[in-house]
Amino acid sequence: MKKIKLLDIAHGRSGDKGDAANVGIIAYDDNGYEIIKKYLTVENVSRHFEGICFGKVERFELPNIRALNFLLNNTLGGGGTVSLKHDAQGKTLAAALLRMEIEVK
Amino acid sequence: MKDKIRIASGQGFWGDLIDAPFKQVTSGDIDYLVMDYLAEVTMSILQKQKNKNPELGYAKDIPALMKRILPICLEKNIKVITNGGGVNPEGCASAVIKVAKELNIKNLKIAVVLGDNIKDEIDEIISSGCELNNMESGESIIPHKEKLLSANVYFGAFPIVEALQRGADIIITGRTTDTGLTLAPMIFEFGWKNNQYDLLSAGTVAGHILECGGQASGGNFLGDWQSVENLANIGFPIAEAYPNGEVIITKHEILGGKVSFETVAEQLVYEIGNPKEYITPDCVADFSSIKLEDLGKNKVKVFDVKGFPETEFYKVSCSYESGYSAVGNLTYSWPQALTKAKAADKILRKRLEDLELIFDEIRTEYVGYNSCHGPLASKIDEENINEVVMRIAVRSNDFNSVERFGKEIAPLILTGPPSVTGFAGGRPRPSEVVAYWPALIPKKLVKPVVKVLEL
C-alpha cells in the first residue's frame, strides 16, 4: 500500500450547471488515468464531498483525454445567481477534490 | 473553398479583458473574430437596462470596441460575430452603424439575428401547450410568469450561416449558443451540411474551447500554472479549422499564455454534464470521442470528434425576480481571529433573531479559513491564525429584513469582539436576486429571423 496525493497525478477544472457543480479531473498520464478510474468512484467522491454535496454524484468517463467528469447535484446553495456561497459557481471544487489522498495497492 | 480558416476568440464573458479582441485582430492573421458576451444572468441585466432605456439592452462595450477595430477588420477582411446584441441586437447594430458613419466607412453589411426573445409571447406559448417546465425540477413556469425578467431561446449556428451567405461583415445576435458563434463560419466556408453531424460536432467542440476566452490558453489553469508565461499579455485562443473537421487550437505567437494538451483538456471538461450528450441546437456532440494531440509550440490538434442528430427542442433561458440578498464582511485579526469571528457571527444572529427579521437563508463563511472548501478545509491553529474575514450573507423575499440586516453589520465594530476592521464602503445594500429557469421549447414554435442592414 502506498499513499498517492491526487494533486500529484491529476489536474482539473470545475464550474456550475444550475445548482449542480461539475468537476472535471484529468490525469497527467495513462498510469494516472488507471488510478483515477479505479479509485474515483461515485462512492469515494460522494464521501469526499460530504457536507458540500447534498445530492447524487454522477460520474462520466472521457478516456481519450484521460479525464473523469463528475456532476455534484444539490451543491451550490441554489445555483449561481441565488446562492449565498462565496464560491457560488463551484470554481474551487476541482481543487477541493484534488485534496484527496488515495491508498493504492 | 478555403483550405483553412482561423477563428479567434475575443471575449469570454461580458466584463472580460477589453483589449483582448483588439489584440486578436492586430497581433497576427485571423479570418473571424467571435465574441461571447452572454452568461445566464446577463440577459436579465440587459433586459432591465432596456426597460429603462429602449435603445439599450446590448453589451455596451461593443460600439467603443468597433470604433477601434472596424477599420482594421475591413482592411484585413476579418468578419466579426458576436452574441452581444443581448435583448436588443437591432439597437446594438444601430450603435455600430453610427460608429461606422463617424469613421466614414462605406459598403458595410451588418446582420442581426432576432427571434430568440420570447418574453412577450409567453402567454401564446403556454396556451399552445408548452408550459416551459423547469429542466431540473419539472415545474411549470406559470407561478413565476408575472415576475419574469427575461426569456430567450438559444439559437444555433445556422442563422449566422444565413447572415454570412448574405454577405454580412458583422453579425450581431441575441441569445445564440456560445458554440454556434465558432461553428457558423466553418459551415459557411466549408459548405458543411446540416446532417453532417461529425463535422458539426467538431466545430461545436472548437466553439466550446473558444467560448471562455483565455481559459483555454493558460488562464485559470490548475495544472502547472506557474509554467504559463506572460499572463499579463495573454493571447486568447484561436481555432484553425480545416474542411475535414480537424481543428488546431493555438494563439498568436507574440502574445502570452499557453496552449497545451492540459490547458485545452481543462476547458473541454468545463461545465459539461454527460460528455456523450453535449446538446446544442445544431447537433449532439460526443465529447468522449474527442482526441487531442499536443503538436508543441502552442498548437493542439483536436480530431476524431463524433456527433449525432440534433433534438427537436431549443433550450430556453428564463430569469425571474426572486427576492433580495445582501452580504456583509468584517475582518478579525490575531490573536484568536477565528474565535472572534465566530463569536461575532453568533452575536449578529442573536440580534437578527431578536429583531424578528424574516430570512430564507443566512450563511456564514470564514474567508481565509473555509469559504472555498468548507468541511474539507484543513484544520488551523485557531489561537494563531493571522486574520480571518467573517462573511455573512442573507436572502429573503422581505426587502425590509434584508435592508435592516445591512444596518446591523457596522455596529459590531463597537459592540462586538475586538481587533476588527474592514468595514469600508458603507452598509451592504439589498440587491435583487434573479433566479434562473432553464426549459425546453419545441423548435417549431420559434423561428430565427435574419436581417441584413447595409451602409
Kindly describe this structure.
The complex is a heterodimer of chains A (105) and B (455). Chain A is built from 4 helices and 6 strands. By secondary structure, chain A is of the alpha+beta class. Chain A has one domain (2-65, 73-104). In chain A, the strands form 2 sheets. Chain A has a 4-stranded antiparallel beta sheet. Chain A has a two-stranded antiparallel ribbon with strand order 1-6. By secondary structure, chain B is of the alpha+beta class. Helices cover 29% and strands 25% of the residues of chain B. Chain B is built from 12 helices and 19 strands. Chain B has helices at residues 20-26, 40-52, 61-76, 89-102, 122-127, 158-165, 178-190, 197-210, 261-268, 337-354, 399-407, 412-415, and strands at residues 5-11, 32-35, 79-82, 109-114, 148-153, 170-173, 238-241, 247-250, 278-279, 284-286, 291-296, 299-303, 306-308, 313-333, 361-367, 387-396, 420-421, 431-442, 449-454. In chain B, the strands form 3 sheets. Chain B has a 10-stranded mixed beta sheet, sandwiched between helices. The radius of gyration of chain B is 25 Å and the shape is globular. The mean pLDDT of chain B is 96. The interface between A and B is large, with 47 and 51 residues.
